[in-house]
Automatic annotation (TrEMBL):
This is ACB domain-containing protein. InterPro entries: Acyl-CoA-binding_protein (IPR000582), Acyl-CoA-binding_sf (IPR035984), FERM/acyl-CoA-bd_prot_sf (IPR014352). Belongs to the ACBP family. Gene3D superfamilies: 1.20.80.10. Residues 2-91 form the ACB domain. GO terms for molecular function: fatty-acyl-CoA binding. PROSITE patterns: ACB_2. Keywords: Lipid-binding. Pfam families: ACBP.
Length: 104
């Protein structure tokens, strides 16, 4: 899996409209987050957020759950997760994104 495929996948995820036909679930968004952070920064290196920061804790826990995964594997998993969501969506926009990733 190439860096270009990962970069293209990140751009696609970041560009998905909030009210568009392809809507990742909250769990899928956390999955993207954990693999993105692991794939770009490596293992989590910050303290777990405080008790009232529910979103921060969920993100930290998700990232921490993939501790030890190589950056390359995390990037591959990120792309695979996006392709899984796009194939499930099965619409023209999804097909266009799949072609873009495969061409990268």
């Amino acid at each position: 899996m190439s860096q270009a495929k990962f970069n293209k996948a990140v751009k696609i995820v970041q560009s998905l409209p909030k009210d568009g036909p392809i809507q990742p679930t909250t769990d899928e968004k956390l999955c993207f987050y954990q693999f993105y952070k692991q794939g770009t920064e490596g293992d989590v290196s910050t303290a777990r957020p405080g008790i009232m920061d529910f979103t921060g804790k969920a993100k930290w826990d998700a990232w921490n759950s993939v501790k030890g995964t190589s950056k390359e594997d995390a990037q591959k998993l990120y792309v695979e997760k996006l392709l899984e969501i796009l194939k499930k969506a099965d619409n023209e926009e999804a097909k266009k994104y799949i072609a873009e990733i495969e061409a990268a």
